[in-house]
From TrEMBL, chain C:
It comes from the Bacteria. It comes from Azospirillum melinis. This is ATP-binding cassette domain-containing protein. Keywords: ATP-binding, Nucleotide-binding, Transport. Residues 10-240 form the ABC transporter domain.
Length: 740, 349, 359
């Protein structure tokens, strides 16, 4: 029943009051610092009992915490006095903004041992006290400030007066600022570091223009080319190969009577749930100098044994194996999206099958082709695992960055400079893609149903598609069969007798006096990995879909820039992200290193872009009037999202849950610096085994992960379910493999 | 009409917020928790010494296996607020580098007198900030099956590697990426003189099929018959041999360099007493025995420690008087690596 | 339980809605009486839909004040306003059954499930769809979907019920029936309704009052009759009902009537309040009668014309005429003695259906 109508001010009060109360709790009751009271890192140690900002500020001489009370008091006055209701939004906005600014400023300005920046000390004199990283109190207070501010904005009529939208935008922006900008800023500012902490444009330039990055000597003499050209060449080749294969698969799946289409689905999922290095390993074991295939070819046909697999050919092969499924997923959406009636129209106009394909079907597929190519191009640029194992003397940017940091050179500045180049190339590709696709619209899926029947392919194309797709599919299955088999062999390639030794070493269980003992070597990292993946997947999906909602459903200033920012972390190679997270989050105010939180945060913000894309694509298909209608029927934004949008978004939810879960399990480069002794991840452990040459355990562990992920994907499908709308469902949202 | 909506909205935002708060503060770094150790040797050994220490003292050890470069990068990045207590194992060079940058803590062990001279020398060169726990000599690893099949005699000296039958059959890591390869570079400079060394490396370049990224990768490649010969630390080769691969190792006749696997206490550790206890344990015969137990065949640094029979006998190897002082500095390293880049890398395929 | 109404008036005070530098709605003020159906009428892009969405709270006014039931709701989001809307696309939730769609607003407002279902069934009964509750929206015809959308908006007993071009997706016959049904329902329940359309016939048929908008401002407000008979501008005269626009001369006024000279003919029209001089006469097509004339007859009470085109439409004739005042379009009920095309004729004016507006 319609309740009594309320005034704007009345409606405003409860929510702001809740946040204000939480703000006071955070400020006066909860411990302000992480691990307060017991943390000996506070130097010199607190003279009195450490605790909330209020207690610490009054008793321990950390006076700089106290001004945070001002905005809380101001907001309290504005909320409590009815006289001030008209001005309440403005007051909330001002106090929230000031509180947030103050909290951040003091956090950055005052570090563990007093002033964090020298010039502050010069200005105000030395500070006898330092402070630790933000804890529960600080986090809650800062959030309270953030939401008081956004409530103020909403009260002034921004975002259609919707507090939820305003709050969500504030939250997403603040999170991106803290977990994307801050770390990336840290690492990129290092590109001009002369080694002493000072910035020098000359140092930056000499790093950016170094000849080993740009030289073209491979064209003129028998020398290696600059690493940029290597990367670009590899990426272009990979892009072409995966696009052609993806197209062939898509044509076979959609436009032929091919029976085993389910099998093709499996094929698309396999490489995505494969831990890094595994394909490379399998390729070595097949095509290496002592590989099965190589030996067979040598014995039967006398083909001389060579090392062709190390270098460009090997990397190209593995990248094509890894990225073809993504290309397929992009292409199948496009091929399915071509309205059959267009082709039927062409045929009624006397065009033959071949002419129809050439003049109608192919032009309509072009944007998909460009899209698939660019995605593979970017993936290849940022790929780290495959060039690491199979690169040989063929150097690419991503490995060069890694070794600039961890190699004997130990030159983080150089890594940062290379990171800038890689970032620019990826962003450039994104930009080209947007320009290209932005100008042309080939969308043929309208609101009206298309009653046509997809036309069969012309004979020549059909044969070509089968001839490309089927051998490749067979190859992939053989590879995976071997991987699974390899886990059960004593010593693959040398001693192929079957054994459970590797599985027992990894996953042994035994009974001790205290009960079950997880005595296998892999259990520890497996449990951490599952924990991290299970925690980060829903968070990623939530943040991603929320952001997608803001991008598709809300209009606000700076939306284009906002969208670009959310994509930033996708374009940055994992290694750079890993280093930047250590640099940014190892010290106050945000201190996360050595915790499981940093792994989760890293995964959430790294995998968020895919979740956003999935959400944006799906949400664009839902008519906006559905949410508006829900709003006029009295549902708030939250209810609208829960009851109307989410049920219609199920495919996107599945996609982002699956993707972020899987990525959290298979990523390696971003987290190799972030895993700590307490929180070791499966992939980091596997890489260690590969380094050792202990391929058996590595493969056994990887197979177990593949099986685990398949089960989880099936579970997610089952739990979230399909949407029920009584009409044909949209194209499944593209899963995208990302740089490891 | 809206009260329920408002309520749910508040709860929704509250959950989001609470989630963020928990995420931000879920697991604050606990003080005096388990000892955190970065481990630079094989994972099995890491686990074994952690367990042994825990058994002995009751203190839990959180052990993370990191390559030398990764460990140094992490310790450096964490320097303002270290999360690590001890860096155990891995070549002495990066330990010296850490000492030079003031990332580690000086500490003198009561067991100092029991140590081999090369272990003590690491201590002196690092101003007490690091000490040797094991030594591993640089050498060759080769695939015996392939050599026999091709009827090639095993390499015994640096000079043998230039033989034409090894064309495209040798692997060594890229010194820009790997500490092992840098040790090889510095060793050659000390054996042959700098110009002689680069002359040698230029000729060797014809026989090298790949400059790998990881120092121990050539050993794995030799074991899997991907290449004939690798230049590695000998214990990495022995490890493959013990794993059942047809490989053997040799020390170069002209003399060879070595690494001093070291241990350092991180400056700013919050568990100084436990860290010291671990340091002592790592130097004790008992702690050093964990290596042989897990088939790691480096030479232990404590004279009282038992020497594993499989370990390459250091007495049988012609060791050069490796100048860690000179070749450990950042400048010398940078200079040699730049020259390697310019003269060797630039002509590599 | 039964569906009642709690109608409330709507008032706009100097409301504007700007996007950057362009104003979609520019300083608009009007009042909608409680219990009436008011139509916002105008060509596309005139600001009528933006005005409607500001009543709903789906757009926020850039300046000015909006009152519903005397209370200021200018800054109140859509959720918190007691206003419901029937969308052009119907906006039925495709994943919910018809009954769930109708009960949606009740459920999210915290009404118990059983009560909500009962009331939803009642709402469906009201629009003649009892028994369709378990179907999915996709299983209904366009007209049925429209009714569901109306029922869904009605069951919340809103203070104001908004219609955004609700009939534009229906065929002509169904449109006429639906428009009558909506009007009947509105009058039966005494709802305050605001109705947006660009179809003047629809507007005339359903409205108590019509607000004609053009280029972001209100052109004229009035009852259908007032707008038809006394348009105050060329735009309104032309947009509502269509009119022949002829230049004339206002020569005098008396007793609320003005005298306008049209060549030799003088006409008496309602006083437009304009100064003497040139005015524009808006002459409805049915305000002209056609008479054949014998050769030489001058006919002082009409203007001579030539019939360009004559169309027989059963109930009436339609003529296209050429005259010294331009082309004229005439609807004449005299089908017994039609004037053939090509003939000369005399056009005379009936008293009604002629208005003078500013040139």
């Amino acid at each position: 029943m319609p309740g009594p109508q309320k005034f704007a001010g009345d409606v405003m009060r409860p929510r702001s009051a809740v946040w204000l109360a939480l703000g006071w709790v955070g400020f006066a009751l909860l411990p302000w610092f992480a691990g307060s009271g017991t943390q000996p890192t506070l130097a010199p140690p607190s003279p009195g009992p450490a605790g909330s900002a209020l207690i610490d500020g009054l008793t321990n001489g950390r006076w700089w915490l106290l001004p945070a009370a001002l905005p809380l008091i101001l907001a309290l006055v504005a909320t409590a006095l009815p006289r001030l209701h008209a001005r309440q939004p403005a007051i909330l906005l001002a106090s929230g903004a000031f509180g947030l600014a103050w909290t951040a400023a003091q956090g950055f300005a005052i570090g563990l041992n007093g002033w964090a920046w020298g010039w502050l000390g010069a200005l105000f004199g030395p500070l006898p006290l330092g402070q630790g990283g933000f804890g529960a109190g600080a986090a809650l207070t800062a959030l309270s400030f953030l939401f008081l501010m956004t409530n103020g904005f909403a009260g002034l009529g921004f975002m259609k007066g919707d507090r939820f939208t305003a709050g969500a935008i504030g939250l997403v922006l603040a999170a991106i600022a803290a977990f994307v900008f801050l770390p990336v800023g840290y690492v990129l500012s290092g590109a001009g570091d002369t080694g002493t902490g000072a910035f020098s444009a000359a140092a930056l330039w000499s790093r950016l223009a170094a000849p080993d990055i740009w030289r073209l000597s491979c064209l003129t003499e028998a020398k290696a080319c600059g690493v940029v050209w290597n990367s670009v060449f590899l990426a272009v080749m990979t892009g072409i190969a995966t696009t052609l294969l993806g197209l062939a698969f898509a044509l076979v799946a959609v436009r032929t009577g091919f029976r085993a289409k389910k099998l093709l689905r499996v094929l698309t999922v396999l490489p995505i749930i494969t831990p890094p290095f595994v394909i490379s390993l399998a390729v070595i074991l097949l095509f290496g100098r002592n590989g099965t295939v190589t030996l067979v070819l040598a014995d039967w046909f006398g083909i001389p044994v060579s090392r062709w697999i190390y270098g460009l050919p090997g990397v190209l092969l593995t990248q094509t194996l890894a990225f073809t499924p993504i290309s397929f997923l992009v292409m199948i959406g496009v091929v399915q999206g071509i309205g059959p009636s267009l082709e039927e129209a062409a045929q009624t106009l006397r065009a033959s099958r071949w002419v129809t394909f050439r003049t109608v079907t192919w032009p309509l597929m072009r944007p998909g082709v460009a899209n698939a190519f660019l995605i593979s191009f970017i993936e290849s640029l940022a790929d780290f695992g495959n060039p690491l194992i199979l690169g040989g003397n063929f150097e690419v940017l991503s490995t060069k960055i890694y070794f600039a940091v961890v190699g004997a050179q130990n030159d983080p500045g150089r890594a940062a400079a290379l990171g800038i180049i890689l970032l620019c190339m990826c962003l450039g590709a994104f930009w080209v893609q947007r320009q290209w696709l932005g100008k042309k619209s080939y969308a043929t899926v309208g609101g009206k149903g298309d009653n046509g029947i997809p036309s069969q392919l012309p004979r020549g194309i059909k044969i070509a598609a089968y001839a490309t797709a089927l051998p490749w599919a067979a190859f992939t299955f053989v590879l995976y069969g071997l991987i699974l088999f390899g886990g059960f062999t004593e010593n693959w390639g040398r001693n192929n007798s079957l054994t459970l030794r590797h599985y027992l070493a990894a996953f042994d269980l035994s009974w001790g006096p205290g009960g079950l003992i997880w005595s296998g070597r892999a259990w520890g990292s497996l449990f951490t990995t599952i924990e991290v993946a299970a925690l980060s997947a829903p968070l990623t999906a939530a943040v991603g879909l929320l952001t997608a909602y803001l991008l598709v459903r809300q209009r606000f200033k700076g939306q284009g820039a906002f969208e670009f920012l959310t994509m930033l972390s996708f374009a940055i190679p994992g290694t750079v992200i890993g280093i930047s997270y250590i640099l940014a989050f190892n010290q106050p105010p945000i201190e996360l290193t050595g915790t499981v939180t940093i792994l989760i945060v890293c995964f959430v913000f790294r995998n968020m872009p895919v979740s956003i894309r999935a959400g944006v694509a799906a949400m664009s298909q839902i008519d906006r009037s559905l949410d508006e209608c829900s709003l006029t029927l009295g549902a708030g934004s939250v209810q609208t999202i829960r009851r109307v949008i989410l049920p219609l978004l199920r495919p996107a939810i599945v996609a982002s849950l699956v993707y972020s879960f899987v990525r959290a399990i298979t990523s390696i480069s971003a987290v190799i610096f972030l895993v700590s002794p307490k929180y070791e991840l499966a992939t980091a452990y596997i890489v260690g085994r590969v380094e050792q040459g202990d391929f058996g355990l590595a493969i056994a562990y990887s197979s177990a992960l593949i099986v685990l992920m398949s089960v989880v994907i099936a579970l997610i499908q089952l739990l979230v379910g399909e949407r029920r709308i009584g009409r044909r469902t949209a194209t499944p949202v593209t899963l995208q493999e990302k740089p490891v | 009409m809206t009260s329920a909506g408002n309520w749910i909205k508040s709860v929704g935002l509250g959950i989001l917020a609470a989630g963020s708060v928990i995420a931000l503060t879920a697991t604050p770094a606990k003080a005096q928790g388990p000892l955190t150790v970065l481990c630079g040797v094989q994972e099995e050994w890491c686990k074994a010494i952690a367990v042994a220490f825990e058994k002995k003292t009751g203190t839990a050890v959180a052990m993370s296996r990191k390559s030398a470069g990764e460990a140094l990068a992490q310790i450096r990045a964490e320097s303002a607020n270290p999360k690590t207590d001890v860096w155990w194992g891995g070549p002495g060079d990066p330990h010296l580098q850490a000492a030079e940058e003031g990332l580690t803590l000086a500490y003198e062990s009561p067991q100092f007198a029991d140590l081999q001279p090369w272990a003590q020398s690491q201590y002196k060169q690092s101003q007490g900030r690091s000490v040797g726990i094991y030594a591993g000599a640089l050498g060759f690893v080769y695939n015996t099956e392939l050599l026999a099949k091709r009827k090639i005699s095993a390499p015994k000296c640096w000079a043998d590697l230039l033989r034409p039958e090894f064309r495209e059959e040798i692997q060594i890591a890229n010194p820009n990426a790997s500490g092992t390869a840098y040790t090889a570079l510095a060793t050659l400079v000390q054996v042959l003189g700098e110009d002689g060394a680069f002359d040698y490396l230029k000729k060797l370049n014809d026989n090298v099929n790949q400059y790998t990224k990881s120092g121990s990768a050539p050993a794995a490649a030799v074991a899997r018959s991907e290449t004939l010969v690798g230049i590695i630390f000998m214990h990495d080769g022995i490890n493959q041999k013990v794993n059942g691969f047809p490989v053997d190792v040799a020390a170069p006749c002209e003399g060879t360099g070595y690494e001093i696997g070291s241990v350092s206490i991180i400056k700013g550790t919050k568990n100084l007493d436990t860290a010291k206890a671990f340091y002592e344990f790592a130097l004790s015969p008992e702690g050093q025995a964990t290596g042989a137990e897990t088939k790691q065949f480096q030479m232990p640094s404590n004279r009282k420690a038992a020497i594993p029979p499989e370990a390459p006998k250091l007495e049988a190897i012609r060791m050069i008087d490796y100048n860690f002082q000179k070749f450990g500095t950042a400048e010398e390293r940078k200079r040699l690596l730049s020259r390697w880049d310019a003269e060797i890398k630039a002509v590599a395929k | 339980m039964s569906i009642a109404s709690k109608p409330a008036g709507v008032e706009f005070r100097n409301v504007s809605r700007r996007y950057g530098n362009t104003a979609a709605v520019d300083n608009v003020s009007f009042t909608i009486e409680s219990g009436t159906l008011v139509t916002l009428l105008g060509p596309s892009g005139c600001g009528k839909t933006t005005t409607l969405r500001m009543i709903a709270g789906l757009e926020m006014a850039s300046s000015g004040t909006i009152l519903i039931g005397g209370k200021d709701v200018t800054r109140l989001p859509a959720t918190d306003r007691n206003v419901t809307m029937v969308f052009q696309s119907y906006a039925l939730f495709p994943h919910m059954s018809v009954a769930d769609n109708v009960a949606y607003g009740l459920v999210v407002s915290g009404v118990r499930k059983r009560d909500a279902a009962a009331k939803a069934a009642e709402g469906l009964e009201l629009v003649g769809l009892g028994g369709y509750g378990q179907r999915l929206p996709s299983e209904l015809s366009g007209g049925q979907q429209q009714r569901v959308a109306v029922a869904r908006a009605l069951v919340l007993e809103p203070e104001v019920l908004l219609f955004d071009e609700p009939l534009s997706n229906l065929d002509a016959k169904l449109r006429r029936k639906m428009r009558d049904d909506i009007r009947e329902l509105q009058q039966k329940l005494g709802l305050t309704s605001v109705y947006v359309t660009h179809d003047q016939e629809e507007a005339l048929a359903v409205s108590d009052r019509i607000i004609v908008m053009n280029r972001s401002v209100i052109a004229q407000t009035g009852t259908p009759d007032e707008l038809y008979r006394r348009p105050n501008s060329r735009f309104v005269a032309d947009f509502i009902g269509g009119a022949n626009l002829i230049d004339g001369e206002l020569v005098g006024r008396s007793g609320g009537m003005a005298t306008v000279a049209l060549g030799r003919v003088t006409l008496s029209v309602p006083d437009p309040g304009l100064p003497a001089g040139g005015v524009l006469l808006a002459v409805r097509p049915n305000a002209i009668r056609l008479r054949t004339v014998s050769a030489g007859e001058t006919g002082g009470d009409g203007i001579p014309v030539t019939v360009r085109k004559a169309t027989y439409l059963g109930s009436h004739m339609e003529y296209g005429l050429v005259s010294e005042f331009g082309d004229l379009f005439v609807v004449d009920p005299n089908v017994a003695t039609p004037v053939p095309a090509g003939a000369s004729a005399l056009a005379t004016f009936t008293g009604d259906g002629i208005a003078a507006v500013a040139r």
